[in-house]
Design brief:
By secondary structure, the chain is of the alpha/beta class. Helix content is about 45%, strand content about 15%. It contains 26 helices and 15 strands. Strand 5, helix 9 and strand 6 form a beta-alpha-beta unit. Helix 6 packs across helix 10. The two termini are about 15 Å apart.
């Protein structure tokens, strides 16, 4: 009120001592335009070097007159030297891009000095029928937990589930999804595996167990409020391993992806992989190559690369075979390079068909398994049939190729995996699990002395499985293939090759819960949100109208963040979520953000139940204020008191005053108000309306 009064005086010519009002403040000039502008182009920032490393190396060599670095002769003419200089710079720029795409899964040791682990309350230990978990049960009970061993079927029975401190699951992928839908608790769910990851020398990976880690990473994104984490154990759970297990379950490590071994425990970390010092080496093939999914977009890129890498014959296998669109053009382009090309209709997920295919390829030296199928859907929507189909094409085909080629002298066995299995990707639970199995299969083959390279791809700037990673930019297919061939030269087993802008992707990935997995890569901290308790308390101290505004602003803020808008005001509260581009996956992200901000659980269907931002805000407010009555009369009077303060300096002669008077006429007409002088509202002057306002509402 005081500020409004001072402002009213100031604009009417009264001098105000602003230095006394705002001690220590400074004056700034007003903008020269009467509106705000929003920039939609990139701006240079202080943390972005003005000159790239490639350009710096280029000019350093120029200044030193190091002509040999550019592959040119000092006596060459400028017209002859320029193409060589341009080629030198282009090659190094491309290599710099590739180097920025290379990642691998690493392990950080967890400090081993800790107090005795303590578990409290009741824990469920969920196993398959007849599954043994006595060693885990013994360790958990020794740490103080009351443990009940159950199956999913027993959980589905209509009985009262006690208040739980946590749930430990030993189930495979399909049953884990069923468990998630069956559990009637928000207690943290921990998935425990044995041999799912290779964290220490001598580890032999079980690919099926590895699939659970891909699924678990998706659960953590879709249900962060219910997720505990992933723990991989050795075959033998002794006293030391059991103590580590219970420490992780208790939250004492702060880690949610942990490998426990007899020698200690390690937390998963995604790490950058430095490029090779010499990237000029080329991978060369020979004999015949088999490419599954060969008639698809990715298979076509692989085939063209192989044709130029020395392979003499290429077999393109897919379920549609020669009937796939674009096959004739692909084959014609390949044959121009001199290779012999065969297109075969084959479902490699069928072992009989796969066996006939492999048997018919003499001198088979290279296998690239790029076949796969997507079936996006949040975990609540996944059925056993949908999970099995994704697993069948991706995993069964890889297993058959692994088994059927073990007697062959292969130069390369390449599996096209996905970053969804390494990072997780909301809405791709079964796909992430299938690709994590492929990574595990490559590690298993390598441990057995066989060649294997599994690449977890990010999005390609093309169609196909590689374009399926949401929120990741598309990589140039040519550079992606170059990155693949460099991995083969380096004889790498598992890699993630993806173009990730961590400043934006990382903040969204960790918007709901922190991720130790990305702790080595995220340098930009996510701004802390207001504590849930503080927001709820502040809300209760507001009038009804203020509450509506505050909650609407909260919802708009998170809707804008999910959609990538720069500010909440870009969100129209009256437009439906489907209209502005939401789908089931972005709905999950919004649900998680709101649950974190408010402490209130919401179903994944919340945007479909409340289809606009305004409707959702009303629902959020009602959930936050459950059991409390809102006095609308008091709220309206509070707002009228504020109106009185705002209008105290307004005169009917002002332009704004005339507009206010017109608005008041409309409002009073709506309420059917009359006065003792029985003023006709439609014909009342502005002066009469201000007089009426004073008499009716006590405003003078």
């Amino acid at each position: 009120t005081a500020m409004a009064a001072l402002g009213g005086l100031y604009v009417r010519g009264v001098e105000v001592d602003w230095a006394a009002v705002f001690p220590g403040a400074r004056q700034v000039d007003l903008p020269t335009y009467a509106f705000q502008r929003e920039r939609f182009w990139l701006e240079p920032t202080s943390d972005q070097p003005a000159t790239s490393a490639v350009d710096a190396a280029f000019w350093d060599a120029v200044e030193r007159e190091d002509f040999g670095s550019f592959g040119i002769d000092a006596e060459q003419s400028l017209s002859a030297a320029l193409p060589a200089l341009a080629a030198w710079r282009r090659v190094r720029q491309e290599q710099s891009v590739i180097d920025g795409w290379r990642y691998r899964l690493g392990w950080a040791p967890i400090p081993g000095v800790f107090e005795e682990s303590v578990l409290t309350g009741t824990w469920l230990l969920v196993t398959e029928p007849g599954g043994g978990a006595d060693d885990l049960m013994g360790a958990m009970r020794a740490a103080g937990a009351e443990v009940r061993m159950v199956t999913v079927a027993e959980l589905a029975a209509p009985e009262t589930v006690p208040a739980l401190a946590g749930v430990v699951s030993l189930l495979p992928v399909e049953e884990t999804v069923l468990l998630l839908r069956t559990l009637r608790t928000v207690a943290p769910l921990w998935c425990v595996t044995r041999g799912a990851v290779s964290a220490a020398d001598g580890d032999v990976v079980d690919p099926d167990q590895a699939g659970l880690w891909g699924l678990g990473r998706v659960i953590g994104l879709e249900h962060p409020d219910r997720w505990g984490g992933l723990i991989d154990l050795p075959p033998v759970v002794d006293e030391g391993v059991g103590a580590w297990l219970c420490r992780v379950l208790s939250g004492g490590t702060g880690e949610d992806q942990v490998a426990v071994r007899a020698a200690g425990a390690w937390g998963a970390r995604l790490l950058r992989v430095a490029g090779a010092a010499d990237t000029s080496a080329e991978w060369r093939g020979r004999g015949a190559a088999l490419v599954t999914g060969g008639t698809g977009a990715l298979g076509g890129h692989v085939a063209r690369w192989l044709a130029g890498a020395g392979v003499e014959r290429i077999v393109l296998a897919s379920r549609r075979g020669a009937e796939a669109p674009g096959v004739a053009e692909l084959v014609a382009g390949l044959e121009v390079s001199g290779v012999v090309v065969s297109v075969v209709g084959c479902d490699v997920a069928d072992r009989g068909e796969a066996a006939a295919l492999v048997e018919g390829i003499a001198d088979l030296r290279v296998v690239v398994h790029a076949a796969g199928v997507l079936d996006d859907g949040v975990l609540e929507s996944l059925t056993s049939e949908r999970i099995r189909e994704v697993m069948r094409v991706k995993v069964a085909g890889a297993r058959h190729l692994d088994e059927l080629t073990r007697g062959r002298d292969l130069d390369a066995f390449v599996l096209f995996s996905s970053a969804a299995g390494t990072l997780g990707n909301a809405g791709q639970g079964s796909y992430a699990a299938a690709n994590a199995v492929l990574d595990g299969l490559a590690q298993r083959r390598r441990a057995e002395g066989l060649v294997a390279t599994s690449v977890a791809w990010g999005a390609w700037a093309d169609s196909g499985m590689g374009a399926a990673q949401r929120q990741l930019p598309g990589m140039s297919p040519e550079l992606a293939i170059a990155a693949l061939q460099q991995s083969l030269v380096a004889d790498e087993t598992t890699m993630m090759i993806a173009d990730v802008e961590w400043s934006s992707f990382g903040s969204r990935y960790t918007a709901v819960r922190p991720s130790p997995l990305l702790s080595e890569l995220l340098t930009i901290a996510t701004p802390p949100m207001e504590p849930v308790e503080e927001f709820a308390t502040r809300l209760r101290g507001m009038s009804r109208i203020e509450r509506d505004r505050a909650v609407l602003e909260l919802v708009r803020t998170h809707v804008a963040a999910v959609l990538g808008h720069a500010k909440p005001s870009s969100v129209d509260p009256s437009r439906t979520f489907q209209e502005v581009g939401f789908d089931s996956l972005t709905a999950v992200e919004l649900r998680n953000r709101l649950a974190t901000a408010t402490g209130v659980p919401f179903p994944a269907s919340v945007i479909f139940d409340y289809p606009t931002t305004a409707a959702l805000a009303d629902h959020v407010r009602a959930q936050l204020l459950q059991g409390e009555t809102e006095d609308d009369t008091t709220s309206v009077l509070d707002e009228l008191n504020r109106l009185e303060a705002v209008l105290s300096d307004l005169s009917p002669s002002d332009v704004a005053g005339a507009e206010v008077a017109a608005k008041i006429k409309s409002l009073l007409s709506h309420w059917g108000a009359t006065t003792d002088r029985d003023i006709e509202l439609d014909s009342a002057t502005d002066e009469e309306m201000f007089d009426l306002l004073g008499k009716e509402f006590g405003i003078s």
